[in-house]
From TrEMBL, chain A:
Protein's name in the database: NADH-quinone oxidoreductase subunit F
Family: Belongs to the complex I 51 kDa subunit family.
Domain NADH-ubiquinone oxidoreductase 51kDa subunit iron-sulphur binding residue range list: 326-371
InterPro entries registered for this protein in UniProt: NADH-UbQ_OxRdtase_51kDa_CS (IPR001949), Nuo51_FMN-bd (IPR011538), Nuo51_FMN-bd_sf (IPR037225), Nuop51_4Fe4S-bd (IPR019575), Nuop51_4Fe4S-bd_sf (IPR037207), Soluble_ligand-bd (IPR019554)
Listed SMART domains: NADH_4Fe-4S (SM00928)
One Pfam family linked to the record: NADH_4Fe-4S
Source lineage: Bacteria, Bacillati, Bacillota, Negativicutes, Selenomonadales
Keywords: 4Fe-4S, Iron, Iron-sulfur, Metal-binding
Coiled coil residues, start to end: none
Amino acid sequence: MQKINYITENFGKYDVFSIDSYMNIGGFQSLQKAIDMEGEDIAAVLSDAGIKGRGGAEYPMGRKWSQARAVKRPHHCVICNADEGETCTFKDRELITNDPFNLIEAMVIAGWAVNAEDGYIYMRAEYSHLRPRLINAIKQAKERGFLGKNILGTGWDYDVHLYSGAGAYVCGEGTALIRSIEGKAGRPRMKPPFMKQSGLFARPTCINNVESLSIVPHLLHDAVPYMQAGTKESIGTKMVSVGGNVNKPGVYEVPFGITVRDIVYGLAGGIQEDHKIRLIQFGGASGKISDDRILDISYSYEDFAKNNLIIGSGSILVIDERTSVIDFLRYTQDFFLHESCGQCTPCREGNRHIRIFLEKIKNGTYTDEDIQTMKTFARVMPMSSLCGLGETAQNALKSAFDVFPEVFASKTQTEAVG
Amino acid sequence: MIEDSSKFEITDELKSKIEKILDNHYHDFTQIVGILLDVQDEIPQHYIPKAAAFYIAEKLPLKLSVIYDCITFYDALNEEPRGRYPIEICDSVACKVNDNDFLLGSLKELLGIDFGTVTYDGRFTIEKVSCFGACDRAPAVRINKTVYGPLKTKEQVRKLLEQFV
C-alpha cells in the first residue's frame, strides 16, 4: 500500500510551541513565496490542484478564493472553520495538535490572497485543550512580523483571532458560525446575502476548513507530490478519520484512489473480532451510507458520486453486524434531534417525527402509511429547511431506503412472506 | 446534593476574576461566548450562576436576555450547578457501537447516581453529550476538558474515578 505524508508532512518534525523550530524545517517560506504572487495566481494554484472544501461541502476552493477577491467591498475577512462536529470526524484535531504553525501560515496566505484585514479561527469548545498552542502560535507569529502591521514589509496589516465555540453542531454551518463569533446564539440565517458578500459583521467573508487551509502552504512549497497523487478527477491526498467497529481507529492521510478496503482493512486494521460489516457511513452524521459492496470502490469524488455517496469531511464510520441498520438510524436521528436549532419547522418537526417512525419500525408497530409519510418527510426536509443541517440530516436515511430496502419493507409484504 | 443556584452570592474575589476575564477579552461584547466559558471555568461547579450573569450584563453593553440566549443555546454553557468533576459521556454513534451503554451502566453503578443527580460529596455528575471528536478512543468520557478512553471494563472505570478521589 502506498504511504503518503503530504498534508501531514510536518507531523512530529518540530516543536509545536516554537516558531524557530517550525522555521528550521522551512516554515513560513511558503508565505514568502505567496506575497510575491498575485492573489489570483494563488487561487489558480488551488484550482489546478482541484481542491474541494474539506469540511464537507466540497466547494472548489480556488473558485471560492477567486470569488472572494472579486467582491469590491472593503474590510474582507477570512474564517477558519475548526468546528468539526460531524460524528467520527476528528482530522482537524490532529492537524491543529501536530501542526499549528502551518495553519497560522495558511491563514496569513489566505488573508493575503483575498485582501483580508482580519482572520478568525473558530474552534469547537471540545478542543479547548488545543487553545494554548494556537494562542502561542499566533503570538509568536506576531512577534516575528508574520502577523500584525506591515507584514514582511508589504504595508499590509492582518491579524488572526481565536474564537471558541460552545458545543453546538449547527455552528459548523457558515451563517450560524458567524453569529456565534458575533456574540450571539448560533442560529443559522437565510442566504442570500451570501458569506462572500456579507458575512461576519456584514463584511465580505471567506470561510475555509482547517484541512483545506492546511494544504495551501505545502502546495506553494512543492505541488509536485500532491499533483502526482490521487486520480485524474480527484487529485492529491485526503485526511480520513476512521472509527466505529475497527481495530485501529484513527486519522490517516490517504491518496485519492485507494480502495475503501485498503483503508478499512489495511490502515484501520480490519473489524473488531473479525465481524462482518453491516454498513459504512462516509462524511459524518450528515453523510450517506453503504453496505460492504463499497469496499472495492476507489475512494475518490468521481467513484463515490457514481455510487451515490459523498466523501464529505472524510470520516469513515464502520458499523459491524452487531448493530442493526435501524438502530444505527435511530442513533443518528437522536443526534440530529438534539442538534437541530429548532428555528425552522421542517427540521425541528421533521427530525422529531422521523425519530418516532424509526422507533415504530424498531418495535414492529409501523403501518405502510408510516413508511410513506417518513419517505415524504425525508424528501421534503432537504427542500424546505433553512440551513444545511436540515438539508442533510436525512442523507443516511435516504441512502438506507436504497441500500437496505428490506428494513422498510411494506407490512403487507412482510406478513405475506411469513 | 445540588446546591440552589439562586442562593449563589457573588464574592469580591469572583468579581475580580470576572474583571480579569473581561480584560483578557478586551471588554469586547462579541466575545461573550468565550467570556462565559471562562467564567464557567472559574466556578467550581462549572456553571454560570445568575449573579455572575447579571454582573457580566452590567459590565458589558449587552442585555441580560442576550446573555441568557447564549447560555441556554450552547450545550457547553450551563445554567445549573454540576459536580466538581462533571463526567461527560459521549453519545455519538461511534461510541454507541462500542458499547457505551456498558460504560454508562458502570458509571451509574459505581457512583450510585443517574443523570441530573450529583454524588453526595458534590464531586461527580453524569451528562450525555454529542460527539466530542474522540471517536478513536471510543467509548470515551470527558472530565474537565480531558478525554479518557477507551473505557471497556468496569475496572478501567473504577481506576479512572479513583483519580478524582
